[in-house]
Amino acid sequence: MRPGAAREMARDLAFDHDRILADARERVGAKLEYSCLATAFCPAEFTLGELRQVYETVWGTALDRPNFRRKVLATPGFVEQLPGAARLTGGRGKPAALYRAGPATTLHPPLLRTPREGRPA
């Protein structure tokens, strides 16, 4: 799903369900900054691209690939690489390495999203 698509779909909900969905999405977005919740939205074995897609979808913004990779791999216990495992992703080059959720429950340092208008920095 492309960033922003979930917001577009929520406009057609009945009653105040669009507001409920927006509040839940904001809460999940905030938890993604300081917890390892993003791995729960991935399969048991995932690529860093799939993990990044979780953040991009929830936050509604594209993230810099090299920066995201560097931050994720520098966070102790966030993800663990599966030795020798790889997945073809349809792109050029070698297959992407596979990871699984690590033992950590919180992220230190946190993965912070960029401030958006209407949301506190």
Automatic annotation (TrEMBL):
Pfam families named in the record: WHD_NrtR
Positions of the UniProt region annotated as Disordered: 85-121
InterPro entries documented for this protein: WH-like_DNA-bd_sf, WH_DNA-bd_sf, WHD_NrtR
Domain NrtR DNA-binding winged helix: 41-100
Domain of life: Bacteria
UniProt cross-references to SUPFAM superfamilies, sorted A to Z: Winged helix' DNA-binding domain
Name of the protein in question: NrtR DNA-binding winged helix domain-containing protein
